[in-house]
Amino acid sequence: MVGNANFDGDGDYFQEPDIEVNNDNNDITPITHIGVDDDDSINNNTSDTSLETISDAVHDNNNTHNNNQHSMVWLFFLKLSNNKIQCKTCKNLFSEKSSTTTLRRHIEKQHSSIYDKTKQSTLEMNRFHPYLITSPEYKSITNKLIDWLAADLLPFTIVESPYFNNFINLLNNRYKPPSRQTVKKLIIKKFNIKRNNLKYDIEKIPGKVTFTTDIWSSMVNQSYLGITLHYIDNNWNLKNLTLDVIHLEDHHTGHIIADKVFSLLDEFNLTTKVLAFTTDNASNMLKFGEILINHLRSSSNHHVMHIRCAAHILNIAVKHGLEIADDEVSKLRNYIKKVRNSTLLNDELRKIFENKNEQFLAPILDCPTRWNSTFLMINRQKKTMEYHQRLVRFTLSDAVLDYPTNDDWNMLNDLCEVLKPLYVATTLLSNTKYPSLGDVHLTFLGILKNLDNIINNDENKQYLIADSVRYKLQEYWDLVEKNTRICSILDPHSKLRLFFNNTEIDEANKEVEKLITEYTSNANSNDNYNNNHSQPISHHVYFYNLFATNNDYLNTHHQNNANEYNNYLNLPSISGNMKIDTLTWWKAHQEEFPTLAKIAKDYLSIQGTSVPSEQLFSLAGHAIRKTRTRLHPETTRACLCLKNWVGNSLGLGNNNVGEINIDNDLVIEKDDNIDCLIYLDE
3-state SS of 498-530? Predict the structure, then answer.
């Protein structure tokens, strides 16, 4: 006998150590030894056994890399020296060409009880052998786990939830999630890797960049400075990324903000690439803009502009107009507060909607810091006035005393009509997916024209509100008109249509022509490159060249540039009914107007509002909340940046991977003595 595998009365068996034996007839080198009687009955000469012996056999077979016998069926067969294959159980012989499928079928039919136990042992073997933390499988899954936690701003303690671990175990019982302490270290490490790789992404930006910035204070009074970067790529897509979220521990002075932003721009080699930056109208931001412009100009950046957030300007004008109707607005606000704070009134109002078979619309309460909230409050009340009047008539409540009278509603209606264009403008300008600075010029002109019409109409009382709003907008108009001039002309929907006299048109044309000369001068410095790498020309230009005489080629650069600009202006403007966005138009005409296209690619990325920074901090409110108030500032920074970078496939570097390398030094096992509640430090 080659080796002994003894079975007990319950059918369990154990394996004795392998022994090499030389028979007279055959030299046999066993893989493992499983012995039964010829009739598959259990040998009664057994000792105590367990499934551990099968696990050992499986483990030995899995670790046998010097031969090709990796299939589990080889636990039941021997390869003989005469090139035959012998079943260890019944001693049947098979050809050396027999496939593992043939051998498996023999075991399943003739020795099924032994085969089933071996399969179960294999499953148990895998179940109790989790991935090594250095294995590719563990690294891949953990990287995806970190991406998920960062992108959805989830608490790190989710990895220690028993329900989460049960779910993971069901999907892959060999993967053991890292502890929350390890997750934090991995997120910080991934943030550092991607931040370093982000420089590679920024180097590939074809033209100028712009940025927005704002300051936000969390519910635990920690202040953060957010910076979002914007540019147009080679496919004429408007891109944005979160450049950084900086924790501010000092006073929020313009000097401190300017120093931090300039250091950040210098780190990413952006001091000469920044064309403009957009902020709100706070006094410290205005000082910051003045200081930063001086810093950038000292770095040979002479064209940088500070753009005031158009949405903030509109909100300032709205607040100024609300002063005229302060009593009426306050009365409506007090009524809504009582309804919202009373369960009985809310239930009664809901019943009134149900009786009319209408969807319930809760009253909106305005917020001083939220744009258009007063307009939305009044507008909602106008739409649901019938239901609220029923509530006032049939409900004995103090709210009746606070409900606006008919005269009050006349003033509120006038206010709503004045504020509606400002609401539409804010909604339009808050979109970050297409160029917005040119639209600032258009919307402000439209609002001012509408206010003039109201003021000149003496038959209504709206002129008082309109005059108050217009007065505040007029304070900012000169600055707005100057900063939006180029983008307005480069918008194929408007071009020069928004300039109403020869003086304005001449000033605008001179500014564009000056830019064309500068961009052409910069392009001429790369003539050697351009001569060796000819640029494609549009079909229009191709046929113009065929038609042209020899004298046409003697034109100077200045004449060519003037012709390019004139040809652009002579093309029909895009009709408002045509659904062609500005960037798509320039993508189709970039070869026809190469110099103007370069200018458009730079200037059309300028943000008309600071909405991107506002959106960034709206997300920050999800990261720091009541159940997560002790999040460390550096961890907050990493999570907010990674959410943007992971979602936009940024920070991958030259190898397009950007993944963290997990090693033993990073892994921290869960400390059973630590209370891993969600509100602990992460």
Answer: CCCCHHHHHHHHHHHHHHHHHHHHHHHCCHHHH
